[in-house]
Amino acid sequence: MRRAGLGEGSSGNYVASGYSVYEEENEHLQEGLRAKVNALKSLTIDIGTEVKYQNKMLEDMDTDFDSTGGLLGSTIGRVKQLSRGSQTKLLCYMLLFCFFVFFVLYWFIKLR
Prior knowledge:
The protein is mostly helical. It has helices at residues 10-83, 88-111.
């Protein structure tokens, strides 16, 4: 395939040298672009890995919250069942005592 300006003769050598300068510049720019594309590829792979890790952590947290919600729901159900009984006064005293103990423990921890 013959390119324009690269014919035979003395003027062809001048055009050919100008053409090689443009080719070298294009190759240099192409290498720079290739390096940037490789950097972006590496970055997107790292982002994908991080997203997968974060999604796994969120799924684990969701499972933990579901199990905790079930535990709290059953505990609240038991407390409601106790409050329906005839010993509501005793239950209130027990809850007030628990709050007092937790408050005292919090106060001791805060002073340390």
